[in-house]
Amino acid sequence: MFNRDGSMAKHMILIGGVSSKESKKKLDVGFYEIKKGDFSIKFTNWGATIVSVILPDKNGKLADVVLGYDQISTYMNDTTYFGATVGRVANRIAGAKFTLSGKTYKLSANEGNNTLHGGARGFSDVIWQVKKHQPGGQTPYIRFSYNSFDGEQGFPGDVKVSTTFKILDENKLSVTMKAKAINKATPINLANHAYWNLGGHNSGDILSNSIQIFGSHITPVDKALIPTGEIASVKGTPYDLTKSTTIGSKINQISTGGYDINYVLDGEYCGGSLKKAAIVQDSKSGRVLELCSNQPGLQFYTGNGINNVQGKGGAVYPKYGALCLETQGFPDSVNHPNFPSQIVKPGKKYKHLMVLKFSTK
Question: What is the annotated signal peptide range for this record (predicted)?
């Protein structure tokens, strides 16, 4: 483990809010790296979080293309979810409650009356164990694990969770999020909340980036960004990004001040069980990001809530300073029977795959 300046960093922190056995353990919280050639990714096990992704541009110049912080203490006080693994249920749950098998579960409300990304202390705000770490070699990877307890943030049942980040080929990253319900049926919907700016984390806004999303429908939301339950076509609306579109060309037409909506992925396959989700390109650097996933939805968020956040290396992140591509189950699925179910029964497993391919043009 190391600080961003390369010096060793160990923060001994007592885990709170886990099982009685684990609550007596102390775990190190630090930074970790996997690297292959010029492609390097750094993490912290606070929230199983991506801290940096360094890639070459079309001229071979390296830059860090995700937003983040220099210090672990800043991640601990973060409200933007920079780079984090979010859960037990990513996105929003209306009224911070749901009913399962006749029982109503009341959850931690951390966005008005609603639950966002698992509650006030979701998976982004806990210490994950580093189970395996191969920093280099043919297939560099790191695996984080976390044991979520029955009643955590109001959710039922014990759940074992892991997130594995692996460099597959040159400039290709896989993210595998797994979970197993141990003793009760429970909703599970994990997501990675990296904020991408392909021009570099300190290069300004992403309005000149172009994006194509492989989804011809969205799940419309109310003023609190809670889905109405409808599945609506994007045709003829500013949400139509089915063809490569400059983000800034339509963003002023969005009543909420920017994109923050779940797209229903159409199912165009890109290999195996994975579906095409999105392609993003930054014309100045030439960097391209292609995303595939096995999930039914994609939350596209344009950093509308970023407001001059102090980031890495003294950078100040502006509104629209990055974009998020959160493959996921549909938001508030637990309260909409017509949405794909996120309920995992005892002994059953959940698996979320993402593959991110980086290139230049």
Answer: none
